[in-house]
Amino acid sequence: MNTSVRALLIALSCAVAVGCAKKEVRPEPPAPEPPPPPVQPQTQPAGDNWTDVALLGSKPCLVARTAYFDYDASNVRSEAQEMIRCHAKWLQNNPGARMTLEGNADERGSREYNLGLGERRGNAVRDLLLANGASSAQINVVSYGEERPVCTMSDDSCWSKNRRTEIVYTVKQ
Amino acid sequence: MQIGKRIHWLSWLLLLAMTLATTAQAQLVVDIPDGRPSAIPITVVPFAWESAGFPDSTDLAEVISNDLTRSGQFRGLPRNDIFERPSRGAQINFANYRQLKQDYVVVGRVQDGPDNTYRIEFELHGVLKQDEQLALAISGRPGDLRASAHQIADLIYEKILGVRGAFFTRIAYITAKRQTDNPEYAIWVADSDGFNPQRIVWNSQPFISPAWSPDGRYLAYVSFEHGGQSIYMHEVSTGSRRRLTSFKGINGAPAFSPDGRQMALTLSKDGNPDIYVMDIASSRLTRLTNHYSIDTEPTWMPNGQEILFTSDRAGKPQIYRVPASGGNTARVTSVGDYNTRANVSFDGRKIAMVQGNKNVYRIAVLDRERSDTGTVRVITSGPLDESPSFAPNASMVLYAAREGNRGVLYAASADGLVKQKLTFGEGDVREPAWGPFRPR
Question: What confidence score (pLDDT) does residue A99 get?
Answer without folding.
Answer: 98
